[in-house]
Specification:
The protein is 73% helix and 2% strand. The protein starts with 5 loop residues before the first helix and ends with a helix. α4 packs antiparallel against α5. It has one domain: Rhopdopsin 7-helix transmembrane proteins. By secondary structure, the chain is mainly α. A hairpin with a 4-residue loop joins β1 and β2. The radius of gyration is 19 Å and the shape is globular. Strands 1-2-3 form a 3-stranded mixed sheet, with no helix packed on it. It has 10 helices and 3 strands, in the order αααββαααααβαα. About 2% of the residues have low confidence.
């Protein structure tokens, strides 16, 4: 059943319509009620998620579904870099808005999320350009740290503040996401750790990071496309869950709820 992702990758394109719907809705709110620190990052996320649903790629081994100029590891990662920094900034901004008592360590943690996502971008770019799989592990470890921070800050706010004029739902969503995501992410990290250990004796041991290596990696992520729908190439069941949750369901729905909550 999960040996080939052809049907899933075609169905995934419906996610582009969902994201474009959310994107369009961000322009429907009265201008005077719009918080640009929320709406602009949300628009970036929705636009990039729609693009990724149309032209999905898998960074490891430069796997693509369509042999198209738009199915580019380089372009996708470039767009994703802006998208990921933007939506983590959005989540950190929400924490600061909900921190009505201005607790300094909560604000500090919110900015730490932004710093950590920037660090994770360095790791994923390093993995793409050098082929060292262990860097994907450190990137994903960074995401675990980000959402652990988000969950801790949200738990504190949930326990210490009263009513927030209808925004309590965002704290509950933060907590619910943390409860669901963090155990899954530890499983994901386990898979990445196994992959990294298996590659250590072949690729990483022989690889020294040089400008020549980085140039080769850059050219490879721009031009190389391995077109396939094989499930293993797309990360198997973990990859399927990740693409669906990140590009179509959990993250877009969450961000859309944030936009709605703060735009009326």
């Amino acid at each position: 059943m999960f040996n080939d992702f052809t049907i899933f990758l075609w169905v995934l394109k419906i996610g582009s319509l969902i994201n474009l719907y959310f994107l369009t809705n961000t322009y429907m709110f009265p201008a005077m009620t719009v918080d640009l620190y929320i709406v602009v990052p949300a628009r970036i996320l929705f636009a990039v998620s729609a693009y990724r649903c149309l032209f999905p790629v898998q960074y490891k081994n430069n796997v693509v579904f369509h042999n198209s100029p738009f199915s580019s590891i380089f372009l996708t990662r470039l767009f994703a870099t802006f998208s990921e920094i933007s939506y983590i900034y959005l989540l950190s901004h929400v924490i600061r808005l909900l921190n009505i008592n201005h607790v300094e360590w909560v604000n500090f943690l919110s900015w730490l999320m932004v710093l950590q996502v920037a660090i994770s971008q360095c790791f994923v770019w390093g993995a793409i350009l050098t082929g060292q799989l262990v860097l994907y592990y450190y990137e994903e470890l960074g995401w675990a740290i980000i959402f652990a921070i988000n969950t801790i800050a949200s738990a504190y706010l949930y326990l210490t503040i009263g009513t927030l004029a209808g925004t309590e739902i965002l704290i509950r969503l933060n907590l619910l996401f943390g409860i669901v995501y963090l155990p899954w992410q530890f499983i994901h990290l386990r898979v990445l750790h196994v992959d990294a250990r298996q590659s250590r004796g072949t690729i990483e041991k022989e690889t020294k990071v040089t400008w020549s290596l980085l140039k080769e990696g850059l050219l490879r992520c721009i031009y190389e496309k391995n077109q396939t729908s094989d499930a293993n190439a797309w990360g198997g069941l973990v990859g399927l869950i990740w693409m669906t949750g990140y590009w179509v369901t959990l993250i877009p729905l969450w961000v859309n709820q944030i936009v709605i909550t703060f735009s009326w």
